[in-house]
Each structure stands twice: as C-alpha cells, then as structure tokens.
Amino acid sequence: MAAVLWDGWFSRLDALVLVGLFATWLAMVVRRARRHRARNKEKVIEAGQASRLKIAVQVVAGLALLMAAAQFVVLGGKGVAQSLGWSPFMVGAVVVAVATGTPDLATTLIVRLRVQHDVGLGNILGSNVFIALFVASVAALILPYAVSLRELMPSLIFGLVTTLIILPGRGGVMGRWRGFVLLRMYAEYVTWELRAA
Fold first, then answer.
1. Does one domain contain both 164 and 77?
2. Kindly report the CA angle at 160 between 154 and 162, in degrees rounded to 5?
3. Are 156 and 1 within 8 A, CB to CB?
4. How many domains does the chain have?
5. Which of 4, 50, 115, 131 is 20 to 30 A distant from 83 in Cα terms?
C-alpha cells in the first residue's frame, strides 16, 4: 500500500496491482481450504448438515443489516467531522473505523469463547486484507483520487509495527503481553491522529 501510494495518487493502475495481490491471496486461501477439506472430510460432512436455505437467509439478512448500519455510520461520521472540525480522513481513521470494526470484535470474542481460535484470527486478518487490497482498490477503479502522505504515513507505520508484533513465536502462541502492547499502540495511534486533526 505504501509503495503504490507513495506518489500521492491512488490511480487505476495502483488499484489493479492491489486487486492482483488480492486475487493471489484469495487463490492461496482457497487452495489451502480445499486441502484442509480433503484431510478432514468426515468433519466437514458432519458440519454441513444445516439447511442451506436457512444459512442463505441468515447470510443475506446479516449483509442487509450491515449495509444499513454502514449508512448510519457514514452519516454519523460526517456529522462528527462537521461539529468537531476534523478532516474526513480523521473521521474515517477513528470514528468510522471503530464503528465498522465492532462486528469484527464481536465475532472474535464469540469464537474465542467457543474455543475456535482459528476462526477469530482468520476473521481479523481476512477482513483487513479484503479492505486494504480489494475495497480500497474498487473505489480507486471507479474514481482515482489523491491521497495525503502526511495523513497516511502514521497508519502505515502503525500497521507495519502491528504486523511484526502479531507474528507468532516458535510455540505459535500470542501471549497476553502482545495484546497489551497492541492496545497501547492503538491508544497512541488515536492520540497521534487527534493531535493532527
């Protein structure tokens, strides 16, 4: 992301590069999922007994509610920007990001309580890859736009440091201390952005 936006412009070529990276990532995920399914065929069959119609209705209803909620978040974000005098980037980086990240938090907590750690981690990483490589690119493909490196750099720096911190150790365990470090980092990030607003 830093490399393609370094010139201060999110062009259609930049977007195509990122979409290509997303397609590569998605192909790798699908390939790994098929291997996992082949190795755990009995568990997959047992888990697949739920009604497909019921699953489809739940997915569609969930997406519809998310889209409706997103509209309220955008309208509310604009109101915050106008009342506090924040830049649109600031509103997106803090207010809208927290609002849209809340479903990820809820999902992660639920699967954590159900001891399905891989689902929670996959949700967090997958949603970030999807947003960074696909959603942002679709917007630029529709209409290329200028970006401010001054506003963008803190997010990219904190994102890079976060990636390094969540890399698992030899035991594959992410200790609580990393969670505390990440929470402190997010507080520092928000403080940084608020000062620049």
1. no
2. 100
3. yes
4. 2
5. 131
